[in-house]
Amino acid sequence: MNESKRELTVLDQIKASQEVRKAIIDAASTLYARKGFAATSIQEIAEAAGVSLPVTHHYVKSKSEIMRLIMEDVLKAFRESLTRETVGITDPEERLAIAFIIYARVVDRHKDQLLLLYQKSGSLDRPSRTRIMQLEVEVSEIFGEIITQGIGQGVFRPVDVDLMAYNIMLMTHMWVLKGWHFKKRLDLEKYADLQLKTIIHSLKHEEQDRQII
What is the pLDDT of residue 9? Predict the structure, then answer.
């Protein structure tokens, strides 16, 4: 929704919630990257998004809340894709592989926004930081549930589930934080495949590893 597109009325904008949310997030991400978090106003975000200021305030009361919207969208995209792609799949190893690849792709699509989250987390107000941390935990719990299932079935060896789930999640974030290095020789799919092999190896029983070798 920029100046080249049809101007939406306030009522239209409220009804088109997903479209408006995305416009606000995209505009904010661009402005934050160009001007910086502190120098960007809600008014500027609203104008860049082609959304009226009252409607923008309907979604966000502060710039910090836009960061919350970003994390909520990442979690929503991950959950929806995972639910769709794992229908009927019960094998924990296969579910974990699918979940990791899906999350890696979601993170890659949101890499600019997630990088902003890392860079500006210290500038956020306490409620927004708390909510973002909660959403991060919810992502890790998705991986944790799969790992726990695998341990229960004897597919994976006993591990610290919370620690392993966060390790897995941060492996995808490394693509955002250190992509400048890895992109010299790897694309996203190759990176995810190599990291997935490391994850599965760390979760397998020693006798299973010997059988694979």
Answer: 55
Domain segments of the chain: what residues?
1-61, 63-212
For the domain made up of 63-212, give the CATH fold: Tetracycline Repressor; domain 2 (1.10.357)
Binning pLDDT at 50, 70 and 90, where does residue 208 land? low
- Please give the model's pTM, rounded to 2 decimal places: 0.77
CA distance readout (Å), 191 to 17, 34, 52: 35, 29, 41
CA 184/CA 119 separation, integer angstroms: 23
**Is 1-61 assigned to CATH 1.10.3720.10?**
no
pLDDT at residue 189, as a whole number: 94
Report, as an integer, the average pLDDT of 124-131.
Answer: 81
